Records
---
Amino acid sequence: MTLKYILVFIVLCVNVNCKSTYKICVPVQHLKACEDMLEVPTKSKAILECIPARDRVECLNYVQQRQADLVPVDPEDMYVASNIPNQDFVLFQEYRTDEEPDAEFRYEAVIVVHKDLPINSLDQLKGLKSCHTGVNRNVGYKIPLTMLMKRSVFPKMTDREISPKENELRAFSTFFKQSCIVGKWSPDPKTNAVWKSEYSQLCALCEHPDKCDYPDNFSGYEGALRCLAHNGGEVAFTKVIFVRKFFGLPVGTTPATPSTENPDQFAYLCVDGSKKPIRDKPCSWAARPWQGLLGHNDVLASLTPLREKIKQLAEAGKTERPEWFEKVLGLSEKIHHVADNIPIKPMDYLNKANYTEVIERGHGPPEPVVRLCVTSSVALAKCRAMSVFAFSRDIRPRLDCVQEASDEACLKSVQDNGSDLAGVDALKVATADKMYGLHPVFHEVYENKQPKYAVAVVKKGSNINNVDDLKGKRSCHSSYNTFSGLAAPLYYLISKNKISNDQCIKNFGEFFSGSCVPGIDKPENNPTGMDVSRLKQQCSGASSGVACLEDGRADVAFVSSAGLKDLSADEYELLCLNRENGGRDKLSNYPICNVMMAPSRTWVSAKDFLSDVSIAFTPLSLAELLETKTDLFNIYGEFLKNNNVIFNNEAKGLATTEKLDFDKFKNVHDVMNACGVKV
Ligand SMILES: *[C@@H]1O[C@H](CO)[C@@H](O)[C@H](O)[C@H]1NC(C)=O
Ligand SMILES: *[C@@H]1O[C@H](CO)[C@@H](O)[C@H](O)[C@H]1NC(C)=O
Ligand SMILES: *[C@@H]1O[C@H](CO)[C@@H](O)[C@H](O)[C@H]1NC(C)=O
């Protein structure tokens, strides 16, 4: 800074107030939107500054460490924040609706029954027909479960032979006679189908019991009431505002609207078993608090300019709703009334609504956990962050983290029941099976939810159409120790009986007229000193795989689909060796035109312990939740400046591993072993 600027700065400071710069933390993907926000003119002269972080989880750490001053949060983030050691967070503004600007909570969970239902205690809900908003939702599922499981008449959910989620479904289906709980019960499609048939009473009251999914006329806040009023339901779990709308009563600032439903036929059921008329103030079990703005304790020293600035921005953006309105401030079309509250610690804020116990809901002691084995202190920190985050979003079993010195030590730990899951790369998944008796449960997927594939790339207009055309041609490969470069084409040629499997490397070299398999001649890869000259004949300098093909040193390149994005679709295409009659297709069609699927980073578990459904549930649910919300927690992003921590940076999601695919990889592994190729 030059002297002149320093002087200007001091003058500004005197005029408006030195404390009036505030650093708002923003997920880096929304930094541009944040900078747009800074351009918005407001009466307030308070200055905001955009501080980019990986995601909201990192923002919480930034605020705690004073690298930023504030960040918008959901109630679940407040729970995560409360778990950060030495935190001094305060919630200083609430985001409410124009419809209910004075309401204490965003919504309150209520039970609605027919007014003459002969019950005077919650215990007597047993055996009734129940209507819910949908699986895993707050007022229709999580809150009733939290409250009912405290009662001794509610079935225990501690059967460790089945997963926590299945325990919940079983308890509901035993407690109620029939229900409608739509939605995806498991992130694994097969498990979902099995449960839907096993616990079909939970779908019996739905409009489409066989589908038991959205959209269903008897699901959602209003649907649960329709289910109660018109589909034989005896009790409905929903929220107050929809009860009032359904029965044509005024809501906050909105006047009454006509309705054909009669509120006098129904009543709220209170926790003590008493009933209250629908027209009166309801009795609720728990509430979901508003979202809001979280800062560190020091912002309290100069809060007014900041609060004014935020209110003016909310006002400025509410009609057009530019990107920053939602992505940076966390406001929305419905929720944009910014209200000052007496600054409160996030945990106290949640407790006021009984929401902490909803978040912390368990299944009865001993609570099940799923233990993930990691091999570094950074991975341990990331695992713990994922654990708190997943827990705050009602994902069970809770994730626990175990650190071991190496991948092998982790496999051993899973084998010895010291942990439940360990991650392995490429064909090591087969080693995990052979040496440690483990089996795969789920794996990473990449662009478009696809695994990677081993592919064969040729020049567009090439006369190569099938495997037989490849004979005598020149080939380039990605390096020796890659699946796509060597294992896949070698296994392919052997399994199609194009080369015999004794002396496979020699035969492989002779199938082509000359090749480049980088690394084939390294002593550790060729301990017996075979003649591998044909397999390095086309190598030159450092160029391998695709670059080698581009240099014109081969007619075909065996590479991973991950490397195709750098290649021109005008000049190259794929050879479909996976198809009976071969053929060629464009580069982007690698999922249907390839050599074979490649093994992704895969997590393995022990055969005899906790069921896979239970083990996979937590990571799969977390991945599914974050699929479209990486700004909440980008679990595939760099962590504390490290790459590929637990997951590869290029991963986009997780999926259950099919046995068929795994068996194929085991075969490749065995064939490579027999050929003396290290995997
Ligand atoms: C939903 O159910 C109600 C009550 O049975 C019925 O009046 C309404 O027409 C249904 N709506 C649809 C879209 O099926
Ligand atoms: C919290 O629980 C108590 C006791 O069960 C209940 O009286 C109160 O209404 C609940 N609070 C909310 C906001 O629902
Ligand atoms: C595995 O370890 C857990 C945690 O120590 C224990 O609760 C469980 O009973 C063990 N399972 C087996 C099959 O030994």
---
Amino acid sequence: MRFPTATPTLHCPACDRHYPLPDLAWRCATCQGVLDLAGFTPAFPDPTALSGRAPTLWRYAEALPLAEPTAITLGEGMTPLVTAPGRPDVRLKVDYLMPTGSFKDRGAVMLVALAQNLGVARMVADSSGNAGTAIAAYAARASIACDVYVPAATSPGKVAQLRAYGAAVHQIPGSREDTADAAAEAADRPGTLYASHVYNPYFFHGTKTYVFELWEQLGGRLPHTLVLPVGNGTLVLGAHLGARELLAAGLIDHLPRIVAVQAAPCAPLAQAFRAGQPVPAPIVAEPTVAEGIAIARPARGAQILEAIRTTGGAITTVTDDQVNAAHAALARAGLYVEPTGAACWAALSAGLIDAPESASSRGLPESPFAVAPLCGSGLKSKPPAS
Ligand SMILES: *Cc1c(COP(=O)(O)O)cnc(C)c1O
Ligand SMILES: [Zn+2]
């Protein structure tokens, strides 16, 4: 018995069709839509049980769809929460201190644990960098062959990291979408798991631990506002899922507002949000220093818009100049992130995200109104343009 509950399935909400996990489906064969996880009922652990558990994301075992993969874990999770420079009302969660240098480890360890349970021999991933490096690291640890497709323009530091983990790196000319198409084609080979951080719902059950940790670190509550970067929405959708689970467990009494941040040169979700559209329209993306969120066609776009709307949230955009300024300011405060990792701080420090009256009047330093992540390490990224 390797799964903690009855074996889950992948489910297409549009067609109500189920796919057994060993089929290795990555999207719905009927409508090509995205699949969610069904047949698994998460339960947040009894908070009194948490204090004795190791400071990794596996402390939330009852809420996770897989048992701790003891042979492949790298101790991921429970990253520090620090006060933002000059803003005692804001905290920054230092997710760049994850084993491979980004929050993607939260989801990658789930995908590789799933691959291990299913006994697949090969995984395919595609990424602008950090998801690929995370999956490659855990795949290496699990001795599963891993092909990673990246855009040709990906930072040399990330490509070097991928190669060091032993992944077969395929650098694809053209857009981020061309890279995804090349990976999807390779993933259709038999016996291959498309370890997609976008399509595979196990990834979101990993990223949801971001809010579980926040809830613990803030003494059993969430902030009024979660400021999150959004490209494909793996952190936004994970955070939303985690908050809903805390709500279902009676540990919070309402969902926190999610304010997502896109790069102005590539902001299909912000445009759709403003226009009140349910699905993002295709856009022509311009280059941006925030490479990690430059996603012109987010496959879960409709889910992302719906999730943010249900929290009363918003999607804002930041310019490359604002990202570069925030990147420099963070570094001068001792926090060295990749440019994308400065996007949320750029929005906060440019005054784009206000504390509502109700939250600021509470204004106690121990209860910040907003928390933003520092998503990716500066050590592996190309320097900002300025
Ligand atoms: C992946 C990533 C993001 C955005 O995540 P999405 O899942 O695309 O929304 C933001 N910042 C960094 C550093 C990332 O690696
Ligand atoms: Zn379908």
